[in-house]
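Let us work through a complete example step by step.
Step 1: write down the sequence.
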Amino acid sequence: MPSKALLIVITFVFVLVACNTKPQAEYYYFGSKKIFSSGKAVKSNTTYSNETGYGFDFENKDKVQVRSGINSFANADVPFYFSVKKPEGNYEVELTFGNPSLASSTNIKAEARRLLLNNYSLNAGESTSKKFVVNVRSPKIDNNREIKLKAREENYMNWDNRLTLEFSGANVAIQEICIRPIDSIRTLFMAGNSTVTDQDCAPWASWGQMITAYLDQQIVVANYAESGEALNTFKARGRLDKIESLLKPGDYLFIEFGHNDQKQQGEGIGPWLSFSNLLIEYIERARNKGAIPVLITPTQRRSFNSEGIIEYTHNDYPAAMRKVANSYKVPLIDLNEMTKKLYESWGPETSKKAFVHFDAKTFPGQNKALADNTHFSPFGAHEVALCVLKGICDSMLELEKHIVGFDKNYTPQKPNMPQKWNVPMSPRFESTKPDGN
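Step 2: predict the structure and record it as tokens.
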């Protein structure tokens, strides 16, 4: 029976050989070099710069310790980041982790807090490797055009020139990272608003950055949603053009709007006019590229009446979306109805945990209480992502075969409870509400 130390070495050799046999792969090891001469060494003081192109990054970079020896790894008592300079594209990321002396629980996120791994437990001395696919993007559409980013987006992780990974959990020990480009992969594109986007900073979150944990390595998520956007502003900023420029046959385009569209006024504006016409345009532009459009009705706001029933606040916009879906034979995920059942299942008090409701001074520099009934906490965003996964399965989309780790018996009438969510909060924090509240 091989010893635990021998098993760790065997795992290391297997991962490293696999990584180095793939073209253009880059390998990073933490601490002492074990066997092969290839790869880049990462030490405790290896901080990211554009010149070196890799290293510990953002908050807590000075708190990471890299331990050398037979069992080498990087860890910290707080969430930490590691970045590698990368151009726009899709990448396979292979991570080897496990603590040689302590039981561990590992959470992994990519870029702007896209969940990849949720509390993966290992016994002391156990080591494993996991593969993920990550989309890295830039605002560039072509040689003459770029997405018109909002000022607050310019410092978002999704729009910088690197691939960033976030690690957290109990006794996390990251041993090796292997990154290689993927030339061809099916993509799930997302168009939407603040309830869909990759929220860059805690405590805000969206379902679009949680669903990534439940898709296999045959599908990569490219989430172009942004806070405050409506169908027309999303298009005007060039986001639809950017998606269209990348769409390939067999890709998906998920479309969820309504929150901000309903606030617009003027001649020709409304659910049965501009909103419906723009939905049709999105559908046709996706289909013209051989992609599969899917309409998603807007998530409910947390608006209970005196009897504990959620009040509809989106006027006729969900109905208009259902009509367009029916007329154009487009798959529909009725998230409006699913989240109504979800919030009512929790009730007025418990449902606060699914939204950004936090007392003053919960986070550094937060002097005022946060009480937002539109935007989700990480727990709430994850639960809404489960609703979307349920909708994918119920709609019998081909995408269902790429869903992993999801209980298909899940129902919003019997949701998970807040105490089950124990993924540490990301260290990047912002008290300002996202656009479109």
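Step 3: interpret the result. The helical segments are 4-20, 231-236, 239-246, 271-288, 317-327, 335-350, 378-394.
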